Amino acid sequence: MSISRREVLTSIAAVAMAGGAVSLEAAQHVHESAAADANATGGVYKPKALTQHEFDTLKTLCEIIVPGASKGGAAEFIDLLSSQNPDMSAIYTGGIEWLDEAMKRRYRADFLTASAAQRTEMLDKIAYRKNRTPELAPGITFFNWARRMTVDAYYTSAAGIKDVGYIGNRGSKEFKVPQEAIDYAVKRSPFA
Amino acid sequence: MFQITRSAPVYDVVIIGSGAGGGTVTKVLADLGISVALLEAGRMLHPETDFKEHKWPYEYPHRGSGDGGASYFGRGRAFGFFSAQAGGWQLEGEPYTVAEGSKFNWFRSRIVGGRTNHYGRISLRYADYDLKPYSRDGIGTDWPISYEDISPYYDKAEGFIGVTGSKEGIRSAPDGIFQKCPPPRVHEVLIKKAADKLGIPCIPNRLAVITQTTNGRPACHYCGQCGRGCIPASNYSSSQVQVFPAMQTGKVTLITDAMARELITNDEGKVTAVSYIDKKTRTEKQIKCRTVVVAASCCESTRLLLNSKGPGHENGLGNSSGTVGQYLTDNTGFSLGARIPALEGMQRHDADGMGGAHLYMPWWLWDKKTDFPRGYHVELGGGYSMPGVGSFAGVCAQHEGYGDSLKKAIYEDFGTHVGFAGRGEMIPNKDTYCEIDPNVVDKYGIPVLKFHFKWTDAEYKQVEHMEKTFTDLIETMGGTVVKRNRPTSEKISEGGDIIHEVGAIRMGNDPKAAPLNKYCQSNDVKNLFVADAAPFVTNPDKNPTLTIVALAWRTADYLAEEMRKGNV
């Protein structure tokens, strides 16, 4: 964490301790500088745990699971954690290997080189528990992991948080609830 | 700190533990000009760097799942990466054991402020009848004090730490000195309407959060992150609100990384020193005192007394009654949630508010007949909280699939769930207690605790009642509860889970039945006091922290007066 952010936070505390209100501008600056830190990736990402092929395959898969996941850094998130944890790494190297083999058996092409229609056909099988067979079970287990972690990566990124519509994590002097929101919910409830 | 053993100072009071009880005693005594040494088993707290207030998950490459994605494998931090807790259910090198057939989980925090840095901050007074339960229903034991004894100290506690709330005139939830509670969020408005329909009171919450400037602390800025710790100290933690200000008086010597091992006594049976392990050097040291206040947390204080053995007190110090470790209880816990269709598609807005619900339900059947003794209160959850790792795991599991339809499902699901959590009174029973395990020591060589724990029908029936109440509330709001057939023993929390363990060093009127008198002073050892939840006689359906603060304040006042009179 940058020193500047810590200084700003400390100054918020100082202002607050002096009996003043929290400066919204200061709070906003904290969040912007933090976002700038996070976005400063500096060029092309070099995978840490996965091979380049595995990483490219994962990145394509993540983007299909959650369109926009690349912006959320989903593949980088998974690769980083895999580099720190052999259990995690095994899930992804094994899962991607399984996926490529299954694609090659059916379409004579691995996941990356297969057509969009072929990818969809395969994913439509492994994206649902009801399709579990001895043959597909490893793929379903793998997809479950990839879906969960792609969703986590995207919805904890600045883009995903905005997309789902979370508004908050900011100081305000007073807490108010919009009357339109209350009216909307009450009207749709059994208490209308 | 440089000390030469031969001229080691003798402190008027040594306080062991810097949580709600120890923090309160430290503040009260320091304000009276009494010099104290405060021993804390954990490290110093540095709010500006320790607290993750206002941080986004994307500021961390692991997004809050922990290094190597620990939380995906069930190895993440308790209460999540962002929580201000500094401890856990297991501490490396500091085990505890659990008897066969029992389940018990013990949460310990090793840091200045202890568990008050991260706790839920719900601050409820015990009712008059809570202190005289035996007189009312013939079960258990009455407290040696009445509501009139403790009420002035609730006033002091609330006035000093700051608590939100409203005057309601409900006997089970006595009114106090309250600051204004912010308005209910949308889902809480719906919950209140459901509660009104079912005849259950649903009132502004009583949280140790300040909504007006208090003793130089600024009002809440409504970021909803109390559990992460509040850098400006707009909520109560003993570290920021009591210990740090008390240190400014110059009367407090804080010694961190000091794990109390044993209380040393002289021939007259008085405590003369505390033996502790200096964790940094792993050496044994002693600090001399005229009086000792043990406030290490209910079970840790019990462990310290039981480990302080000597001639005339072979079963532990202050334990001539043989009851130290007995009458341990936790609160009961059960929760249930559901999706509420009325909340779907609502316009997004900032629902952060205070770090906790803005409403709660006090026990409402206190004057009605139920098939279980005592009662419970209801805590509420829901709203648009900051997305984190795992926030949408439920949607993923239910919706399955991928692509735009999955994104749509997540968008529609966000903020539409409500949750109810019950916290109720457990009746002390003979199968629930802690003792020293003769076979196991921790990494400092200190014998560890062994827990025995059993729920009885009294608690099981209460939890069944909670399930029915929460189901009624959800259905009244238009939600659907997914029915799961499981035995009550699997619905109820495990012992210790609620982290409301109280009662193992009871106060009472009869020295043969209770180790402490009504001022939480040891009957056997006049210069030994206990100031955490261990002296509690019962564990009513109210979170214990406010009562810990109030009782500790009362004990500190009494101790100061006894010192002035030369009695201790």
SSE layout and pairing:
The complex is a heterodimer of chains A (192) and B (568).
Chain A lengths: L2 H15 L6 H16 L12 H14 L8 H11 L1 H22 L8 H11 L10 H19 L2 H7 L14 H10 L4
Chain B lengths: L9 E7 L3 H12 L4 E4 L7 H4 L36 E2 L8 E2 L9 E2 L23 H5 L9 H15 L24 H13 L4 E2 L33 H10 L4 E4 L2 E8 L5 E8 L4 E12 L3 H10 L24 E8 L19 E3 L14 E7 L10 H7 L4 H10 L3 E8 L8 E9 L5 E6 L4 H20 L11 H4 L36 E3 L14 H21 L3
Parallel strand pairs in B: 1-2, 1-10, 2-7, 4-16, 10-17
Antiparallel strand pairs in B: 3-5, 6-12, 8-9, 9-10, 11-14, 12-13, 13-14, 15-16
Helix pairs in contact in B: 1-6, 1-12, 4-12, 5-10
Overview of this protein structure:
The complex is a heterodimer of chains A (192) and B (568). With 192 residues, chain A is mostly helical. Chain A has two domains: 3-40 and 164-188, no CATH class; 52-156, no CATH class. Chain A has helices spanning 3-17, 24-39, 52-65, 74-84, 86-107, 116-126, 137-155, 158-164, 179-188. The longest helix of chain A is centred in the middle third of the chain and has 22 residues, at 86-107. Chain B has a domain at 8-53 and 103-121 and 124-162 and 236-329 and 501-568: FAD/NAD(P)-binding domain. In chain B, 23% of the residues lie in helices and 17% in strands. Chain B contains twelve helices and 17 strands. In chain B, the strands form four sheets. In chain B, strands 1, 2, 7, 8, 9, 10 and 17 form a seven-stranded mixed beta sheet that branches. In chain B, strands 6-12-13-14-11 form a five-stranded antiparallel beta sheet, with helices on one face. Chain B has a three-stranded mixed beta sheet with strand order 4-16-15, covered by helices on one side. In chain B, a hairpin with a 4-residue loop joins strand 9 (271-278) and strand 10. In chain B, helix 1 (20-31) runs parallel beside helix 12 (545-565) and helix 5 (186-198) crosses helix 10. At the A-B interface, helix 1, helix 2, helix 4, helix 7 and helix 8 of A face helix 2, helix 5, helix 8 and helix 9 of B.
